[in-house]
Amino acid sequence: GAGVSQSPSNKVTEKGKDVELRCDPISGHTALYWYRQSLGQGLEFLIYFQGNSAPDKSGLPSDRFSAERTGGSVSTLTIQRTQQEDSAVYLCASSPRDRVNYGYTFGSGTRLTVV
Amino acid sequence: AQKITQTQPGMFVQEKEAVTLDCTYDTSDPSYGLFWYKQPSSGEMIFLIYQGSYDQQNATEGRYSLNFQKARKSANLVISASQLGDSAMYFCAMREIGRGNNDMRFGAGTRLTVKP
User: Fold this and answer.
1) Among all residues of chain B, which has the CA nearest to that of A106?
2) I need a labelling partner for A65 at 20 to 30 A (CA). Which of A57, A87, B39, B76 fits?
3) Do A104 and B45 lie within an 8 Å CB cutoff?
4) How distant is the alpha carbon of residue A56 from its chain centre?
5) What is the CA radius of gyration of chain A?
6) Contact state of A108 with B42 under an 8 Å Cβ cutoff
7) Taking CB atoms and an 8 Å cutoff, what residues of chain B touch A97?
């Protein structure tokens, strides 16, 4: 596609429910990143995928968070048993490969609200 | 430890004037990259400019330039001839290349408001 697509754009869920957030990167981009942005804050790294390599999960805040990437393209971030502190905007980004000087292309994000 | 520091939560500038947004960073890795992003109210992150730690020249992209002072570990963004559309959050970010870090670390951001 022309850009990084994320869905849904907004999600309201009850505390304790599971949610799935989807990211469709730019076609041909082998690197995919998930970040979390709490209200008025900077971006917090969550997880990174590069091609078929094992993902870098070092930023996931707890074992309630997981992500997968199927076929080297679409990625799904899953949050189990959601808590109110999970409320944030979840941003996905992609890049052609792990090029150090390439500014990632970000999606518009999914705004998650846990009530 | 905080890797990227942006000390200005908010900045105001008059339209058509220049403005400097501050960014300092902390790393022991000799090989790193510095980035600036713009985030308008729509929420999308827009890549503006990149500076590599070994680059001899300051990076420039149109009205954006990066004032890179390596010894002081600062990478300030200069926006010349401000426009109303420049009003947004601005984030400084860094990747530590030598350590093979896959993540880009972001500062807390500076909210820029351009006054007509």
Assistant:
1) B45
2) B39
3) yes
4) 13
5) 13
6) yes
7) none
